[in-house]
Amino acid sequence: MMSIIDESTTAATLKAPVKNHWLAHLFLQFSHTPVGTQLTRTQRKGPLSVQKAFYPEGRDCAHIYLLHPPAGIVSGDELRINADVQQDAHLLFTTPGAGRFYRARTNLEIGDTKQSQITQLQLEADAKCENFPQETIVYEGADGFNTVDIKLTSSSVYLGWDITCLGLPDSDEPFLNGKYCQLNRLYCDEILIYHDRIALSPANQLLTHPAGLACNSVFATFLAYAPQKLKQPQQRAELLALLRDQVKQQDAQTLISISDIDGLLVIRYLGAQAQQCKQLFISLWEILRPLLIDKTALQPRVWHT
After folding, report:
1. ∠ CA 8-11-13 to the nearest 5 degrees?
2. Which residues neighbour 297 within 8 Å (Cβ) at sequence distance 6 or greater?
3. Cα atoms in the 13 Å half-sphere on the side-chain side of 154
């Protein structure tokens, strides 16, 4: 039997544009072993990778540097980073340089404009995770979505920040017409206790509105959560006083706010300098880490290169 082929349909199919996208996934598992915290399992697809664990402060805390050779996220990219920190393991997670959401494509015939990075960190009982990526630069014209989901238990400890820089104002490239969504969620024993979302676009004017970013180009959030270490309101009040005194000593009261939300410490920065933000956050980490993790703060070597 002869088949009848619709030549017009075939021609249209042949001319259909290829939807360009690049999906990348990295899964890491960290286990507490007799010789300390070890990277015990890795699965990867695409350009995301890590070289090895570093141990500048002893074998019980693994320092991991996330590598993304393309150095930025373009339209069609979807990066997924998953880390499972098992019982009693301790992970410090960072990056060797800034992350980037580049200008989105304007030709929709070759694919969607969306650019996504999704990070999921799972902490088991008595696990510790410090998640300190370097700043994320969102270029003018980007269409970025960045989310961080933290799932832990009441005996876990989490310290983590995200620092977002909008545009390149020092190079006369302000962020005016791009779109960017930042979503942070934290779950304890499978209960959502923190949900924070900001979606910037020319339509909502949050970048310029006084109730939004008020024309500031850098915004950041530092979360600290240790339910067993900070059970009592009096303990948290004393810690808040220490942190606020540090902010006052650095004359940063107009840049930093600190809140206690039912035991979750939320530290926010709103200003114009990523390096200033990072140094302020490090000074607060130097107070938090000894109290919540029983270790002095040791900055990863890659931060100085």
Report:
1. 110
2. 282, 285, 286, 289, 290
3. 5
φ, ψ for residue 279 (rounded to 5)? Answer: -65, -35
β-partners of residue 150 are 121, 186
CA distance 154 to 126: 8
Note the pTM of the prediction, 2 decimals.
Answer: 0.92
What are the structure tokens assigned to 59, written together? 């074998």
8 A C-beta contact, residue 90 and residue 61 = yes
Predicted confidence at residue 305, as pLDDT, reads 80
234 contact partners, CB below 8 Å, separation of at least 6: none
Judge whether 30 and 89 are in contact, CB under 8 Å.
Answer: yes
Question: Beta strand pairing status for 264-271 and 99-101?
Answer: unpaired
Contact (CB, 8 A) for 144 and 180:
yes
Calpha distance 12→158 (Å, rounded): 53
Give residue-wise pLDDT tens across range 254-300.
Answer: 999 999 999 999 999 999 999 999 999 999 999 999 999 999 999 99
Q: Can you say whether the dihedral through the CA atoms of 90, 292, 294, 256 is positive or negative?
A: positive
Is 139:100 a contact under the CB 8 Å cutoff?
yes
Burial 183-214 (b: 16+ CB within 10 A, else e): ebbbbbeeeebbeeebebeeeeebbeeeebbe
User: For residue 26, what is the DSSP state?
Assistant: E
Question: Which residue shows structure tokens 């980007």?
Answer: 142
7: DSSP letter: H
Confirm if 134 and 274 have CB atoms less than 8 A apart: no
Q: Which tokens in the block code for residue 209? A: 């509105």
Residue 76: CB atoms within 10 A of its CB come to 19
**Strand pairing of 128-132 and 218-225?**
unpaired
